[in-house]
Amino acid sequence: KEADLHRLLRYAADRFSMFGEQQDVQLSLDVPDQLPPVFIDQDAINQVLDNLLSNAIKYSRQGGQVVLQATANHQQKRVVISIADTGIGIPSRDLKRIFERFYRVDKARSRGQGGTGLGLAIARELVQAHGADIEITSEWNVGTTVTFWVPFAQGGKAG
Ligand code: ATP
Ligand code: MG
């Protein structure tokens, strides 16, 4: 379905502003005033945003920053969405397995944060159902950026 991504992103940030404040993590939105309409399953993309924003805040430190950013790529007819944090990061040896179901990096380090290790696996499935993909870059102790894209409405296809 054609969707107003701007509103979707604003609402996602709103859903997490309280959780961010509780963890002393500042969440900000960097989205242009105008974004082309995208063809997406809104419930699915909301779920993706929830999984990624909850990770970004959960695996941050006090005083950390999370930026939810979107930019239109007119050549590739897609909107690229990224969630960048200044959190604990992921060791490079774990990165290639991080999208696997139930895979979690060393439980001890996550300050006893609960979780099942499904969030990223589900996010990837939902993004791939749009004929798109999701990527992660991270540096241990520096931060993590997760990037995915969604297709423009014209000529787009969605799952
Ligand atoms: P769930 O999302 O099911 O509640 P989870 O957060 O452990 O549990 P995923 O979201 O799939 O599971 O993440 C898998 C693992 O990847 C996490 O346990 C954590 O070790 C690591 N991880 C994910 N996102 C980040 C991030 N932004 N910064 C640092 N580590 C992360
Ligand atoms: Mg998670």
TrEMBL record:
Recorded superkingdom: Bacteria
Phylogenetic placement of the source organism: Bacteria, Bacillati, Bacillota, Bacilli, Bacillales
GO MF term list: protein histidine kinase activity
Keyword hit for Transmembrane: yes
Residues of the full protein shown: 449 to 607 of 607
Residue ranges constituting the Histidine kinase domain according to the UniProt record: 1-154
Cellular compartment(s): Cell membrane
Predominant subcellular localization, coarse grouping: membrane
Protein name: histidine kinase
Species, as recorded: Brevibacillus brevis (Bacillus brevis)
Keywords (A to Z) from UniProt: ATP-binding, Cell membrane, Kinase, Membrane, Nucleotide-binding, Phosphoprotein, Transferase, Transmembrane, Transmembrane helix, Two-component regulatory system
